[in-house]
# Entry
Amino acid sequence: MFAHNKRLQYTVRVAETNPGLANLLLEQFGGPQGELAAACRYFTQYIGEDDPGRKDMLIDIATEELSHLEIIGHLVAMLNKGAKGELAEAVDTEAELYQKLHGAGNDSHVTQVLYGGGPALTNSGGQLWSAGYIDTIGEPTADLRSNIAAEARAKIVYERLINVTDDPGVKDALIFLMTREAAHLKSFEKALYSISPNFPPGKLPADPEFADTYFNLSQGEGAMEGPWNNEANFRRVDQWDEMSAVDGGDGAASVNLSDKEAQVVKAMAVRTASDPMADPVTGAELGSSDFDDDDDLA
# Structure
């Protein structure tokens, strides 16, 4: 059961309307790193979680993300408030309204005309929100890592939004939201490391023959060595002939076919075989400016 408190988690104070900024903030309303995506991600994980501690944490954070969606939505609505009224009441001439819509930048005319200045479930480029943003896989050691990355990405988006506004109230609210992303990231990391072992994700162990192997597949100028690929942490493979068919096979692809399948495949190969001696004039050549009718059709 959900119960709604009409007070926002953080007070929204907008100094002046700014439709362009409102449109940018939609990135955190209906974008892939936004609050709705986060709320849905953690809510679905909460539903499927069996561990009571993680289950409680996930619904707490999912619910808070909804409150953050509410904050962002109100920021968008307040930043659009003046323009919404002007457009709805037609207080200016057609030319003035048109100029205001397009002069605001950031495609804000789409949200003004189509959504009436309210927060739309789109990103800042007008892309509709998608459930494809929810990348839950139902394995806590994988989902928690994904959650950590999601919170990190959301924090970076908030940092970028903070950098494009000098409105003190908007900046203050965005700093709060950015900070809460860091707090959630910390909770998810603590939850991940409370599972032992937690690497590699899932139940099955990695194949020990390849678990600590690093294939140096990009060699030449710019190649670097560090703890991610050095001999201290990995069996490093630098020789090209050691990188292919590492299972000891011939490196080819094969399949056992039944007699009937083999006959059909052979018939198909005969029907679609190429003639290496054939060199007919093609449509590409006929359309070429270099094509000479007399020479090539002789």
Summary: The chain has two domains: 19-193, 206-244. The first helix runs from residue 19 to 25. Residues 19-193 form a domain with the Ferritin fold (CATH 1.20.1260.10). The beta strands are 213-215, 235-237.
